[in-house]
């Protein structure tokens, strides 16, 4: 991970999920003074600390080998075809959640490589961020972690006979990463039989705005007006409809939306559409994006975003 964040000028290709994930944007300093930053962070942390839910629910996949606790009902996308034809291990599920300044992601891949080969090819972490080898109920893994001036995060990789799993969490220092991140990773279980609510495809459920210490969405800022920018944690790929594939439809869907201070994608507007359900698939994928909100003057704020989803037949 190496302190890197996801791109804010988001362009998606239905067959190139990983290439979109591996782009980066720079980290910008806050525009307020050091004293103001400290006061703002202390205020937000105090507000969040009084609203930490007493219990997180435990979740599992119907065909999975793990269970984990999450603060909200997660979004999930399931892929039956290769989102990236160049990837050796096929992505099966992408799961995401957001709460209190922290984004959570779980990737489930079909195993076609060793763990070491996969980590190298996935390119989501730096060797310099390696912390230790892991073992949970006999399932081998590796831990990577980073921290910079605005965020901290951790990524754990695990391998079983059938699957490769990536558990990732990163959060703004304005939020509660010191609570949410360890809670998430400490809850991972590979013990059988599994217990927990079964995750299903869909948008999931966002945490209430008051839990996220969110500002009002009445004021939405432009990209240049915020620092740091929103940091995307999960970016689901839209999938082709059978009708669009049968009619050989290709092109780009362009959307304009709001990455809100509460961590939800709102006010999605279509700037350029495609037929046979592709526009609807792009909108559904956009609404499943999980991100750490943008910051202005030491507070989480809402920001306008333009998203492009490219549909190509290979």
Describe the structure.
By secondary structure, this protein is of the alpha+beta class. The chain is built from 6 helices and 18 strands. The chain has helices spanning 17-21, 34-49, 115-122, 177-186, 242-246, 278-287, and strands at residues 10-13, 57-60, 67-70, 75-78, 91-99, 102-110, 130-136, 139-147, 151-159, 163-172, 197-198, 220-221, 231-234, 251-259, 265-272, 290-292, 294-296, 299-311. It is globular, with a radius of gyration of 19 Å. The model is unreliable at 1-33 and 48-52 (pLDDT under 50).
Strand content: 35-45%
Strands, count? 18
- On the 0 to 100 scale, the average pLDDT is 83
CATH level 1 class label of the largest domain: Alpha Beta
Q: What oligomeric state do these chains adopt?
A: single chain
Tell me which CATH architecture of the largest domain applies here: 3-Layer(aba) Sandwich
Radius of gyration: 19 Å
Poorly predicted runs: 1-33, 48-52
* N-to-C series of helices and strands: EHHEEEEEHEEEEHEEEHEEHEEE
- The shape is globular
- Taking strands numbered 1, 2, ... along the chain, how are they ordered across the largest sheet? 4-5-6-10-9-8-7
Write the layout of secondary structure elements.
Elements: E1 10-13, H1 17-21, H2 34-49, E2 57-60, E3 67-70, E4 75-78, E5 91-99, E6 102-110, H3 115-122, E7 130-136, E8 139-147, E9 151-159, E10 163-172, H4 177-186, E11 197-198, E12 220-221, E13 231-234, H5 242-246, E14 251-259, E15 265-272, H6 278-287, E16 290-292, E17 294-296, E18 299-311
Parallel strand pairs: 1-18, 2-11, 12-18
Antiparallel strand pairs: 2-3, 4-5, 5-6, 6-10, 7-8, 8-9, 9-10, 13-16, 14-15, 14-18, 17-18
